[in-house]
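Possible regression after last week's pipeline update?

I re-ran a chain I had predicted before the update to compare outputs. Posting the input and the new output here so someone can diff against the archived version. Not blocking, just want to make sure nothing changed silently.
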Amino acid sequence: MDLIAQLEAEQIASLGKTIPDFKAGDTIRVGYKVTEGTRTRVQNYEGVCISRKNGKGIAASFTVRKISFGEGVERVFPLYSTNIESIEVVRRGRVRRAKMYYLRSRRGKSARIAEDANYKPLKGQNANA
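New output (post-update):
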């Protein structure tokens, strides 16, 4: 293991976060800390994960798309952000793409993603995801 990968692994271990096994096409719920004045609360952002970038490194991020009041809204979250309270997989999607950017031009029934009923977690991942 080279020096940079080793340093990244140490930083990720020091954060102590458990990231569930999810990929593009999965519907996820992200609990994000929102600061309003002096108070902080957790706001859930639920939608379809349309992409993941930079793999499992410290700079990894993922994009979540949801429809809010008839308008498509996308948000990019850093995977190891201190503002993310929790990531929960709501349902697994059966897709054949790594990036779901084509959903931007789809509406209604054509934007649906089939559920992956017989999903098997990857080996080496935590089983509670």
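Follow-up from reviewer: compared with the archived run. The CA atoms of residues 80 and 105 lie 30 Å apart. Marking as no regression found.
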